[in-house]
Write a sequence for this structure.
């Protein structure tokens, strides 16, 4: 399974530095959670992992991102390949609301430039929706608009859309923060299933969620106007049970952030 290796990542918006030499290995077969207070650079870090950071005109970065040992920022690598290989699910479910459930799932295929037969599409829709834990709920209404689904279903639809292009890594930026507890649990179960075939990195503000789904955890912090760094990372249970750094201890106990 694919691993992602971030080495000495620094990031800027204009001359405002928001990450300072952050290194983290995200191994295959493991769910990695990123935790830390708002504004410490977690989303920026995630967007650097799939080359979305460079969409912001003022944005720049330093360091390396290796996907299975290969440089994501190599000049010979196509941007569309990089984004296909490392998919992203956002905080707010963002299906195309007027588009059918079926077309939402295959919406990303166009961007990959691959030709796909109708039969392959049907298979991809069924398998992606199955992996996203949504197939049984929507199999009888694939032509209904994506916008008609509940919030939790829309998020699973977005997960299916990401999976349809067969990524090696799936990044999830607070994927449950707009959802109710029941939908959250369904997404968490989906993630645990998915982790068998795709490497997952999730940003979460929910400590219990980090404990429930992730085996590895990294604590980000930006103190007193300094750029974000990783204060501590390691086995999730160990980090929550016996944090090494007092700032991690304070954060996981809910004392700030
Ligand atoms: N598009 C942007 N333009 C300028 N500054 C940004 C932009 N996005 C984020 N930032 C700044 O970068 C810092 C890190 O933000 P972000 O990565 O969103 O943190 P987090 O996800 O941990 O809340 C913050 O100071 C934020 O204001
Ligand atoms: Mg964020």
């Amino acid at each position: 399974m694919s691993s992602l290796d971030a080495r000495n990542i620094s990031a800027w918006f204009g001359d405002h530095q928001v990450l300072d030499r952050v290194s983290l290995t995200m191994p295959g077969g493991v769910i990695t959670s990123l935790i830390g207070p708002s504004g410490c650079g977690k989303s920026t870090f995630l967007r650097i992992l799939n080359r979305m950071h460079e969409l912001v005109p003022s944005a720049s970065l330093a360091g390396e991102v290796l996907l299975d040992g290969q440089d994501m920022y190599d000049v010979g690598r196509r941007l569309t390949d990089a984004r296909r290989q490392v998919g992203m699910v956002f905080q707010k479910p963002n299906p195309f609301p007027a588009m059918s459930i079926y077309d939402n799932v295959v919406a990303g295929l166009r961007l990959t430039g691959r030709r796909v037969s109708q039969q392959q599409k049907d298979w991809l829709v069924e398998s992606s929706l199955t992996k996203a834990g949504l197939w049984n709920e929507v199999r009888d209404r694939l032509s209904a608009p994506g916008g008609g689904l509940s919030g939790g279903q829309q998020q699973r639809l977005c997960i299916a859309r990401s999976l349809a292009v067969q990524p090696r890594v799936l990044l999830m930026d607070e994927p449950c923060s707009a959802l109710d507890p029941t939908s959250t649990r369904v997404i968490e179960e989906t993630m645990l299933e998915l982790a068998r075939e795709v490497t997952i990195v999730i940003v979460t503000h929910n400590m219990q969620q980090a404990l429930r789904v992730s085996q590895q955890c990294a604590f980000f912090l930006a103190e007193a106007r300094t750029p974000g760094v990783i204060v501590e990372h390691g086995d999730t249970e160990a980090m929550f049970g016996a944090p090494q750094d007092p700032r991690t201890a304070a954060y996981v106990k809910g004392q700030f952030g």
